[in-house]
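The freezer alarm interrupted the setup, so I double-checked each line after restarting. Inputs confirmed:
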Amino acid sequence: MTRINARLPKTKVGEKSFKKIIKAGKYLYGKAGYNSTSINDIIARAKVAAGTFYIYFDSKLALYLYLLDEYGHNIRRLAAEATKDCKNRYEIERAGLKAFIMYVKKDPLAYKLVWESLFVDPEIFRNYYMNFAESYTKHLIPYVEIGEIRDDIDLETVSYILMGISNFVGLQIVFNDKSTEKDIDFVVDESMKLLKNGIFNQ
Amino acid sequence: MTRINARLPKTKVGEKSFKKIIKAGKYLYGKAGYNSTSINDIIARAKVAAGTFYIYFDSKLALYLYLLDEYGHNIRRLAAEATKDCKNRYEIERAGLKAFIMYVKKDPLAYKLVWESLFVDPEIFRNYYMNFAESYTKHLIPYVEIGEIRDDIDLETVSYILMGISNFVGLQIVFNDKSTEKDIDFVVDESMKLLKNGIFNQ
DNA sequence: AATAAATATGAATAATTGTTCATATTTGAT
DNA sequence: ATCAAATATGAACAATTATTCATATTTATT
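Predicted 3D structure, all chains:
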């Protein structure tokens, strides 16, 4: 897997510096945001000199893009892992939703990283979600064909709705500092009720 | 209605400058984002001197908070207006969703304003959505009591889900430069199908 | 017409920004 | 042990930042 946006280190000493920068950048970009975080902040936290930063990254933006890319891979790997033994689409949605919320609960900084792309470069944000929606839609099609999902509903819209649910129910959990896995299971169950039967009485 | 975060003008000349600043700020904060927009950018676009800006606003942040407040009022007023003749909860959700998406299509800049608060000050963001969710939940309760909404589903989670749907289906429309009111009606209808019956076959 | 309040101006300020570069040190292969 | 490549350093740079303030003009009231 080739990683763009970075010059990877070639010695163990370099790797240590590289990792320190990554860690500091992830923390600060996630916490204070991209624009509010200065290179000075990053190198101070990473405890490296200014020049060291530029050995591995061309710019402040390059580090952000590197981290965003890393997050994208994490999320995809996690989703694949969490749903690999599921035997129907209902279970896939349930497991995927839970895995996502568990992840954002554990690492809310990475969560903010994606949203912030809207302000770093709107095109990054747009691409991120459009690609995600396109991929989601494709994965849903077979389940319409085997009859698990209704055939009278637009799958692109469904994809955006499912992303919206994940993200905002994720917020609900992140907002509550004391939320536990039990709370996550609860909101996932409630969400699945809606996906199963809607919210209205017939 | 008392407006904080600003010293309102007292003459017609002052009002003109004030409005120019508001307009420029709305455009630039929405387009480039809060952190990427400088006071220089704002006063250049508004065609006022630097000092003039500080006659009406204490700081760059004060202008942002003023605009955020204005957006909040707009959204609430719009939602009340759009749903005032609805005769059941289903119609309220439909009309509210459509009004929201119409608004973000017309004024995507205001849309970004709220999301950016997460990076201007996370507490603002948190308050915005927690208040919104709380208010949403309260409005749903009577409809459970009269039997329009299921009584076996958690209303707080439903509120976050409905916010998620609005925001992400809104994105779907905003992403497509060519989307029309017809497209908005379409995605609203699809969303309502989901709220009515879920996405799975029984 | 007189006058106080409101408004406008823009040069100046001090702080911070991302980035560069000449120099020094360390690493790993020979 | 040698030496080129890799890595580390931090002072220096030019650009940009948000904000202030002394001065000037305009407005509304008397």
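Quick read of the result. Chain B touches chain A through 50 residues (CB under 8 Å).
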